[in-house]
Write a structure and sequence with these properties.
Strand content: 5-15%
Radius of gyration: 60 Å
Order of helices and strands: HHHHHEEHHHEEHEEEHH
Largest sheet: 7 strands, antiparallel
Strand order of the largest sheet: 2-1-7-6-5-3-4
Number of helices: 11
Shape: rod-shaped
Number of strands: 7
Helix content: over 70%
Length: about 425
């Protein structure tokens, strides 16, 4: 047996309450899961950004320390080159060794300034540079003085000054300071490398752990969504099954049933209701506008007073339950009449507002027609009885006249008069 659920759906219709609750619970769980994932991803992003920023800073400082070590090597090399230029000029007296010395002095000053900037974050090394810079200035000043003596006084005095410089061990002191600075910077570089490795490990661990937790939460959220989808599918199957069962029951009901929504729009009717209202199918009834239906049908109460097709639903929409009312439905096109006992009941939502009105039509056409036929027959029988009563009374009067001692002419006149009555 094939069935179809003849319901006109409204846009934005309400879900049944229990389905709505299931959907809301599933939505809330899913939203909470995604919020946790989002918070975790944001936290991971912030943590990764901070860790990356710190790693970038550490790499920058490592690069600064590496550059500082290279600057120390350059300064050492320039000092040695300046000393070689001094000795070469003292021995040869050639001016070509003097200009490189002046270039090396400028380069050493520039490298010392750069070195101070590179180790600006290391107070101990700044102090070492403060101690080293006067020593280098003293050595360069003595070299310049030796070159000047060689120019004015010749080889021997300049040679004596070089020997005196060696006795002062100034170069050894400078080398010792530079070596200490180099060792400090190498230790700082090693420490920075260790800290960078630790930060990188922490960042990788945090990202891995955060990713794992995010995957777990996302999987849990997916599980909730899948469970919600299964629940909704099961609910949909149950609803379809219940709907089909209800349709079978309603289609098997002899009484007509119609349902109007809160706007008085007809949204449901069974086959009995369609037949009662003069429509061949339920679809044809649902497709008919209310104005056309009112033109197609004439409705009157049992006293013959006209009614509108929308009056009973409008009464129920006010929350009033109507009593059983006998109505006559006449199809204008065919002049066919049907008599119905109609009862309309409001259906309320959880807020106490009228959501639907349900009308039940019980066809009593045959009963009314039988009653009308009976009335006609009773009337006809009454007329016949009355006629016979009058005939009997006439015969009684004639017998009375015949039994009287009245003259024959008078008796015949009375009989004729009685017969004419």
């Amino acid at each position: 047996m094939s069935t179809s659920f003849h319901v006109r759906q409204k846009p934005g219709g309400n879900w049944p309450r229990h389905i709505y609750q299931v959907i809301r619970v599933s939505e809330k769980k899913t939203q909470v899961g995604f919020i946790f994932v989002l918070i975790l991803l944001v936290g991971m992003g912030v943590g990764s950004y901070q860790a990356t920023h710190k790693l970038r800073e550490a790499a920058q400082r490592e690069a600064q320390l590496t550059t500082a070590i290279a600057k120390l090597e350059t300064i050492t090399s320039l000092l040695n080159d300046a000393d070689d230029a001094q000795r070469s000029y003292v021995m040869t007296g050639e001016q070509r060794y003097v200009q490189p010395f002046h270039d090396q002095v400028q380069a050493i000053d520039r490298d010392l300034r750069d070195l101070r900037v590179l180790v600006a974050d290391y107070f101990g090394q700044q102090q070492k540079i403060d101690e080293l810079q006067p020593l280098i200035a003293t050595q360069l000043a003595e070299i310049a003085k030796t070159i000047a003596v060689r120019e004015r006084e010749g080889f021997e005095p300049a040679q004596q000054m070089i020997l005196a410089q060696e006795d002062e061990h100034l170069t050894d002191d400078i080398d010792t300071f530079i070596e200490e600075l180099r060792n400090n910077q190498e230790q700082a570089l090693i420490q920075r490398a260790i800290e960078s490795d630790a930060r990188e490990r922490d960042m990788i661990l945090n990202i891995s752990l955060g990713s794992f937790v995010a995957i777990v939460i996302a999987a849990y959220a997916a599980l909730l969504i899948n469970r919600a989808i299964r629940n909704l599918k099961q609910i949909d199957r149950n609803l379809r099954k219940s709907r089909d069962q209800l349709e079978i029951i309603l289609q098997g009901v002899a009484d007509g049933i119609t349902v109007h929504d809160s706007t008085n729009l007809l949204i449901y009717a069974n086959a009995a209701a369609a037949r009662a209202l003069g429509y061949p199918t339920v679809s044809a009834l649902l497709a008919t506008p209310a104005t056309e239906m009112m033109q197609r049908l004439e409705i009157a109460d049992e006293l013959g007073q006209p009614l509108l097709a929308t009056q009973l639903p409008e009464q129920a929409l006010r929350g009033e339950q109507s009593a059983e009312t006998i109505l006559r439905f006449r199809t204008v096109a065919t002049d066919e009449e049907r008599w119905m006992v109609v009862k309309t009941t409001p259906a309320f939502d959880e807020h106490g507002h009228v959501q639907y009105t349900i009308s039940i039509f019980h066809d009593i056409t045959e009963r009314v027609q039988a009653y009308q036929t009976l009335e006609r027959r009773v009337e006809e029988r009454t007329h016949e009885i009355e006629r016979r009563r009058k005939v009997a009374e006439g015969l009684r009067d004639i017998m009375t006249i015949l039994n009287s001692n009245r003259p024959l002419d008078e008796i015949l006149g009375s009989i004729v008069t009685q017969a004419c009555l």
